[in-house]
Amino acid sequence: MWLQTGALDIGDMKTSRRTRFATLLALAAALASCQKVAFYEKRYLASALMQFDEDPTLANFQQKVLYSREATTGGIGSKAGGGCGCTN
Amino acid sequence: MHQLNLRATRAASVALVVLGVWLPAQSSGRTVAGQTTRGQQVVPGPDQTAPGAGLAPVEGFGEVGTGHMGFRLGFYDNGDSGDGNPFLDESLTVIEPVAFFDYNVSRTTNVWGKFSYDNVSSASIDRLSNFPDQSGASGDYYFGVEGGATWALDGDTRIGAFLHGSAEYDYRSFGIGGSYARDYDDDSTTLKWTGSLFFDNLDVIRFNGVEEGSDNRTSLNLGGSWYQVLNAQTHAETGIGLTLQNGFLSTPYNAVVVEDPSLPPNPNLVGDARGLEGTEVLPDTRARLTLYGRVRQLWTDNIAAELGGRLYGDDWGVFSVTLEPAAIFWIVPEVFRARVAYRFYTQTAADSYRARYPGTDPAMDLPEFRTQDADLGAFSSHALGLRFDWFTSPTTRWDLTFDYQSRDDGLDYFFGSIGWTTNF
Fold it and tell me: B248: nearest CA in chain A?
């Protein structure tokens, strides 16, 4: 695993450290991008254009189609495994 | 493995840098009082006017006696142009009605239920009707019931639980699950943890009608998700899911065909091909890991855009990538809404998959694990999805959806639905 450095040589360790540093930097940048949004500023997020997963019947149907035709399961709005003989 | 890990880490770095650079540019100073969000749900504010806002299932906090209900009729069809499994006509049609409701029993308790039924017709069912006990597509029908409740422990914390039961011709399932969600930072952040366990039982009825008793399949699903308000017009969610399965994971009626030109024509195979069928055998354990995320942003009062993605890998050798950009917009503000989405999907083949198995004797010439199921093979697909919503009142919506998926292995499919949802 990339967190386990014991088996790596020095070159790998330097590369790995740089990569981890870049990852942490990027994560910090992403988190820093989050702005404090007050309660009264959230009207636009409550718009009918902005709702995630608003219809359980549609999610049920679409996800069932997809996980019965693909070897993948899980993810947004998806049952992760079990419950149907149709899964791959 | 180390190289792969480094590549994965670099890819994550690039993605995060892009996110970090792009999102700050989307800031806004607009401050209009109204509503708030709580993870995936909408909590109506004092001046809620947008049709459809509030149609999402409410996890507690709704007025007592209120709720939502919905119905959908789905249609799925795929033909077989001779691609995919060369020995099987994979044509399939499914009609699925689904009904859903949720109801606020109290200010802090919401109960919900979901009922679905599938009517399945397929070429494989027709062919296998020669064998009275065999269905061919895991049943000519599916009936499923789910129900659950969500409790608000306080203003920021909710727990949920659900039960699942379903029955098919040769497959039965019972599931139980739960969730814990907590809001932070004035509901700008929600962390949610979920877990579920499915106990499935199936009749092992082979492609030739031979019955081998019943067997079990167990699936443990663990997941975590993070919802985040990024600014006044942008929010996102990301998550991770781990699924551990064990038991009978093959599809019992699937066959693999050993081909030998010297064999006589086999009337059970497409085109009376010269081959003999053997059973599909897949490993009895499977570990599956999914990473996913999506971000949605309101560009104007009438247009929003979303970018979603998913990475998936399992120890059967399947790795997949999904990308799904979408635009959601008003055709007529607050009356007609549309969603246009493109979906790219690609997967590698399972280690056990082979398109062809040359040989003479299924007992001698097939590897221990083998499948010819095209859905476990390598393919890529491009899909176009359209959805139209008609808000007939501030509390009621009709919708039509159309999805067409084009696969590079030729197994294209279409699915569409009509739905109705209302608040009460």
Answer: A85
